[in-house]
Amino acid sequence: MKKCRQKLSLLIFLFTLSQFCFGQNSSIKGTVSDGKLVVEFVDVILKNTIDSSKVANYAVTDISGNFVLENIPSGDYQLQFKLVGFKTFKQKIKFSGSPISIGTITLQNDTNLLNAVLVNSQKKQIQKTDEGFVFNAVSNISQSGGTATDMLKSIPTVAVDADGGITLRGKSPMILINGKNSAITNMDQIAASSIESIEVISNPTAKYDANAESGIINIKLKKNNQSGINGAVVLGGGFGAKGRLNSSVLLNQKSEKWNFGLGYDNRFAGRTKKIKGERTNNFIDDEHFIYQNRNDERTEGLQNLKLNIDFSPNKRNSFSFEALGNIENQDNDETLHSQVNTSANQFFSNNIRHSLELERSKVGELAFSYDRKFADDRKSLNASITSSFNKHRENTDIDTNNYNQYNAMIGDASLQRTHNYEHENISNAIVNYAIPVAEKSIIETGYKGTFRFFNSDFQSADMTNGEYITDPLASNSFKYNEQINAVYGMLNSYIGDKENPKWKYNLGLRAENVSNTGATQNNSDHFSNDYLKLFPSASLQMNLASDEFVKMGYSKRINRPDLDDLNPFTDITDALNPHGGNPYLKPEIIHIAEMSYNKEWSKYSFSTNAFYRNATDAIRQYAELKDNGVILLQPRNIGSTITYGLETIFSLKPVRFYDANISITAFQQKINASNLTQDVVNSAFSWYGKIINNFIPWKGGKLQIIGNYNSALATPQGKRIPIYNIDMGFQQKLGKGNARLGLVVTDMFNTLESGYKNNTYLFSNNRTSKSDTRALMLTFAYSFKSDFKEKLLENQFSTE
Predict the structure, then answer these.
(1) Please, which of 224, 483, 519, 717 could form a disulfide with 758 given CB 3.0 to 4.6 Å?
(2) Confidence (pTM)
(3) What is the C-alpha to C-alpha distance for residues 303 and 626, in angstroms, rounded to an integer?
C-alpha cells in the first residue's frame, strides 16, 4: 500500500512537472499600434471569463509596441488593452495551450479623456522607413508662415538653393502631393502650415514611378482623424524688407462612419531681390564686357482651400474624397540695367529695361480613393482617381530706354507688351493589390496611368504708331500631350522568424509605356515619342539585431525631360541671356546601386547610405555663345555622368532638454561630355550639411535653431556658389496649452544668396542673386479641442 502511494505521488509530481514545462511554452504575443505608430507602455491584462475580477496575467508593451504573456493555462480569456488617452480595447481569446500571435491591435484615441488629460505621446522628428525616412513637419517651428520650399530647407539630405531649386544628391527629385502627381509644381504654392509630414524615398522600388532619378519627395497635407469636433486657428505677421501676413483655419468632425474636414490657409508678402552679373566674351570685340544689375520689387499672395470627406461603412471598406483649391498672384516690378563695352573697355551700348509683370494662377485638384482591408492583414487593395487643373496667366508691360556714353537718352522709349497663358491638366488612375502567396511571401502588383495635357500661348507685341502690333517672330504657342501607362510586380519576402526575420528581400519589375507629342503653332518644331522600357529593382536587408540592419539595393531609373525642357520657345525677356527648351531631348537612363547601414540606441541613432549612379544621355542646362554676343541657355543631352557618394544622418538626445539631428551628403561627379564642342567640367566634388538643434529651455517653451551649408555644386561649364544660412524658431505654450505663441527668424545673419561662375574657352561669367531672406514672423495659434492641438499645433519634437 505504501509503495502504491509512493508511485501515485511520483505520477502526480511528474504530471505537475510536465504541465509546468508545457506551460513555459504557452504564450500569447502581439503588437499594439495607434493606426500609424506602435504604442509603448500599454497595459495588457488577461482575465478569465469565469471570474473577471481576477487578473490571470499581465504585461506592458515595449518600445516596439510588442508584448508577451507567458505560462498561461488552457481556458477562455478576455484580453484588455489600457493606456491613458486611448479607449480600452477588449478581445476574447480561447487558449488551447499552444503559443499564438494575435497580430496587431489598433487603439482608438479617447477624445473625452484627452480634453481633460494631456497625453505626452511624442512623434519622432525623423522616422526611418524601409525606403527612406519621414520628417514630421509639426516638429518644425523655424518655418512658420513660410511655404513648402521653406519647409524643405529643414529636411535632412535635401538641398534648397536661394532661388528655390530643390535637389537630392545633386539632382532634382520627383515631388508628389499626397502620393500623387499634381499640377502644383511650384512649392511656393503650398503653405508650410498645411503640411503634416514630408517623406523622402531615397531609392524607390518598382512600385513607384521610374521617373525619379535622385528619389521621391512626398508632401502629405494635414488631415485629421480624431473623433468628435476639432478645430484650430493660426494667425501670423512679420516683415523682411516688406511686411508679411499669414493665417490658417482647420475644422473637423468625425463620427463612427464619417469624417469631414475643412481647411483654409493664406499667405501675403512683399519681397525684394537684387541680381548682379558680369560676363566676358573672349573672341567678340564689340560685345566684349557685359555688366548687368537688376532690382525686383514683388508682392505675392497665396490662398488654399481644402475639403476632405471620408466614409467607412464597415471596418473593411473606406471611401475618401478630397478637393483642393489654390489661388496665387504675384506682381513683379523689375528694373534691369545693362551696359556693354568693347574689348578695349570702351562704351558700346547702355540701356535700362523696366517691366511690370502680373501673374495669376488657379489650381483645382480632385481625388477619389477606395481602400479594402481583409481578414488577413497582409492582403490589401486600394484604388484612386485624381485630376488637377492649372490655369496660369502672365501679362507684362515693358519699356526700354537706350542711353549714350554720357547717359543721355537716345530717342524715345521702346514699348512692348507680352502675355503668356498656360492651361494644364494632369490625371492619375492607380490600382494597387497585395496578396500573400506563402507564409513568408507577399506579391504586390498594380497599375498607374498618368495623362497630361498642356497648352501655352505666348504673344509679344511692339508699340508702333500708337498701337501694339503682334510680332509673329517673337510669338508662339505650344501644345503637349503625354500618356504613361505603367504596371509593376514585386515580391516581398523574409527568411527567419516572423517577428524578427534575419533577412528581408524584394524583387520588382516595372514596365512603362510612354507616348507623347508636342508641336508649336506653325508646326516648325514637332516631336513625337513612343517607347516601352523595363525598370527592375531589388533589395536585400540583413537584420543584425532588432535595432540594427544592413541593406543593399539596385534600381534602374529614367529622367524624362519636363515641359520647360521640351518647350522650344525662346524667352527673350533678358535679350542678352535668352533661354528656352529643346524638343529633341532624349530621356536620361540611370542605373543606381546603394548600400546602407542603420543602428539605433536608446538616445542615439545613426544611418549611412553609400550610393552609385551611372547616367547616360544626362540632361543638363548648357550655355552657348552666339556670334552677336548673346548667350542662349538650353537643356542638352551632355553625355554620361557618374556620381558616387555617402549620405549620413545622426540623431541624438544626450540630455532631457536637448536633441539634435545632423545630416551630411557628399558626392563626386564625373562628366563625359565628348558630344559637346565646347569645354566642360569633367570632375567635381560637392557636399552639403544640415544640423537641427531642439531645446526645451523651460516648461512649455521650445527653441529650434537650424544651420545649413551647401558647398559649390558642379555644372557642365562651371559651378554654383556655396550657400549657407541659419534659421531660428521659438514657441511657448499659453494657459492650459490650447494656445501657442511663436517667433521665427529666417536667415538670421542675412547670408543666403545664390549664383554661379562659368569659365569656358569662349566666355566667362558670374552671377549672384540676393533676396530679402532675413525676416521675422510672430504667430499665435489656438485649438478648439485639446486632442486636436497635438496634431496641428504641438511642437513636441523629439528623437525618442
Answers:
(1) 717
(2) 0.76
(3) 43
DSSP assignment string, 640-703: EEEEEEEEEEEEEEEETTEEEEEEEEEEEEEEE-TTSSS----EEEEEEEEEEEEE--STTEEE
Q: Which of 481, 448, 475 is nearest to 563 (CA)?
A: 481
Mean of pLDDT values over 334-349: 93
The alpha carbon of 765 is separated from its chain's Cα centroid by a whole number of angstroms, namely: 33
Judge contact between 673 and 715, C-beta under 8 A. no
33 pLDDT higher than 90:
no
Distance CA 245, CA 262 (A): 21
What is the predicted pLDDT for the residue at 385? 95
What the block records as the C-alpha cell of 42 is 500599454
- Rounded CA-CA distance 66/37 in Å is 12
d(CA 728, CA 147): 16
Name the more confident of 580 and 347.
347
By the 8 A CB rule, do 552 and 582 touch?
no
DSSP characters over 314-341: ETTEEEEEEEEEEEEEEEEEEEEEEEEE
Beta bridge partners of residue 701, listed in sequence order = 732
Per-residue model confidence (pLDDT) at position 36: 67
Q: Output the pLDDT for position 173.
A: 84
Residue 119 confidence (pLDDT): 33
Q: What is the pLDDT of residue 488?
A: 96
Task: Tell me which of 24 and 160 has the higher pLDDT.
Answer: 160
* For residue 123, pLDDT beyond 60: no
pLDDT of residue 792: 44
The tens digit of pLDDT for each residue in 47-76 reads 888 776 667 887 878 766 788 888 788 888
Cα–Cα distances (Å) from 778 to 142, 369, 684, 736, in that order, read: 11, 38, 42, 20
Determine contact, residues 96/117, Cβ cutoff 8 Å.
no
CA dist., res. 563 & res. 573, Å (int): 19
> Considering only CA atoms, which of 262, 198, 269 is closest in space to residue 233?
262
Phi, psi of 113 (to 5 degrees): -70, -35
Which secondary structure element, helix H or strand E, spans residue 12, and what is its range? helix 2-24
Cα 326 to its chain centre, rounded Å, is 19
